[in-house]
Amino acid sequence: MEKFLEFQDVTYFYQTKESEIHALNKMSFNVEEFQFASLVGPSGCGKTTILSLTAGLLQASEGKILLQNKAIAKNDSRIGYMFQRDHLFEWRSIWQNITLGLELQKMNKDPKKLALAEQLLKKYDLYSFKNKKPHQLSGGMRQRVALIRTLVLEPALLLLDEPFSALDFQTRLKVCDDVYDIIKSEKKTALLVTHDISEAISMSDRIIILTQRPATVKTMLDLNLEGASPLEKREDKDFGKHFEMIWRNLSTDEKQTIKSP
């Protein structure tokens, strides 16, 4: 398969009041079309920075970031971003929240876009809630609304910044299944940032393991676990082996950092 998203020797520095911080160092990786990829690494290594660079919110100091063989622009319409919090507006109905992006892009009267929004609401069991307010929905339903709001804009690539971190464990497992099903069903390419190794393994086709800051790619792991959903994939016989391999890579990196003067 062709490279869909590609980081080519990407380096990134940013300034603080005290000094210049070297966040990423010659980072290279790729994600293929329709893959679900995850970034895992030590805390503070720059995972969210990578998403911000991919979204065009930040600009690389060196190197190239390509999507579909083209450079990423600021506010690139090919990219959708799903944050840690759902950012639904409580004073707007579910329908008004889902069509907010269309409003901002002056497309809220486009019949094709509105038909897509309605279709997605029906397909993912939210149509009967279209006139409700966000506080009337469960945490899992709110995350589905947030994802549909992004999908209505028809991005080629979805960026997911720990979108399940605010949920309790039981809800988190269910929402992982829901989000995975929607992304695969809609044939989207996704890049997830997570601290949860089990979550990364159960959802991903490819896991990109990062080093401590300045982060670079330590190794990549391609997966092909049995199971139709993330919950089922956790039962695969190789799940524990992959968990141990990733844990060992992350733990070794952290120990080396602690020992360094």
Protein described:
By secondary structure, the protein is an alpha/beta fold. The protein has a domain of 155 residues: P-loop containing nucleotide triphosphate hydrolases (Rossmann fold, 3-Layer(aba) Sandwich), CATH 3.40.50. It is built from nine helices and ten strands. Helix 5 runs parallel beside helix 6 and helix 7 crosses helix 9. The longest helix is centred in the last third of the chain and has 21 residues. 35% of the residues are buried.
Q: What's the topology here?
A:
Blueprint lengths: L2 E13 L4 E13 L3 E5 L6 H8 L7 E6 L2 E2 L7 E4 L11 H5 L1 H5 L6 H13 L15 H13 L5 E5 L7 H17 L3 E5 L3 H7 L2 E5 L6 E6 L7 H4 L5 H21 L2
Parallel strand pairs: 3-8, 3-9, 6-7, 7-8
Antiparallel strand pairs: 1-2, 1-4, 4-5, 9-10
Helix pairs in contact: 5-6, 7-9
CATH second-level architecture of one domain: 3-Layer(aba) Sandwich
The strand line-up of the biggest sheet is 6-7-8-3-9-10
CATH class of one domain: Alpha Beta
In N-to-C order, the SSE pattern is EEEHEEEHHHHEHEHEEHH
Instruction: Estimate what percentage of residues fall within beta strands.
Output: 15-25%
Number of helices: 9
Structural class designation: alpha/beta
Task: Name a few traits of the molecule.
single chain; 261 residues; alpha/beta; Rossmann fold; 6-stranded mixed sheet; 4-stranded antiparallel sheet; 9 helices; disordered C terminus
